[in-house]
Amino acid sequence: MMEIRPATDSDSPHFEEAFFADRLARQNSGRGWLLTGWHDAELIGHLYIRVEPPEQPAVRIALPAVPFIQGINVAPPHQGNGHAKTLVTAAERLLHTHGHTKVGIAVPVEHVDAARLFTRLGYREQPHSPISLLTDIWLPTGRRSRPETCFVLIKPLR
Ligand SMILES: CC(C)(COP(=O)(O)OP(=O)(O)OC[C@H]1O[C@@H](n2cnc3c(N)ncnc32)[C@H](O)[C@@H]1OP(=O)(O)O)[C@@H](O)C(=O)NCCC(=O)NCCS
Q1: Full-prediction pTM beyond 0.90?
Q2: 79 C-alpha vs ligand 1 centroid, how far in Å?
Q3: Which of 30, 54, 110, 154: disulfide with 59, CB 3.0–4.6 Å?
């Protein structure tokens, strides 16, 4: 059983410092949520819901006014147990509660397993997909960007 909740200051030791500081600052100013999944005191998965408009023009065109899920991750020993599905479902419910009618995700084209997972959860490829974008890599020194080609998938929320 996984307990899901937005991150709090005290979760910082579980994350790379620069990533956590960035996401918590965004969450605290209403620009998104860093959702965390726990089993007892162990962090077993997380994702970030970005609500503010994308910085990159290609993403703004492909995901206009659509909040999107970024950086979904389940710890390797816990993969394959439905935790990603549970985290995504919690994110969708949270967005719906806040009045959002759609949610999106950009999945690197080589992550065919992840694309299949989202398709099974009701996400569908958009007309501009795939797109070239810069994705974040978090290092102890801060954020770096890497070009990637991603499928853009959207799901209506009801
Ligand atoms: C992708 C990921 C979040 C899935 O988490 P999970 O808790 O294992 O997912 P669930 O148990 O809810 O669903 C399992 C499905 O995810 C798929 N999947 C995608 N990537 C996977 C991976 N690296 N390992 C295991 N399963 C993966 C499986 O194929 C499975 O689908 P299937 O039943 O059609 O084969 C997890 O594997 C992960 O953190 N991977 C590393 C980071 C990553 O690739 N993130 C996605 C970027 S868009």
Answers
A1: yes
A2: 6
A3: 54
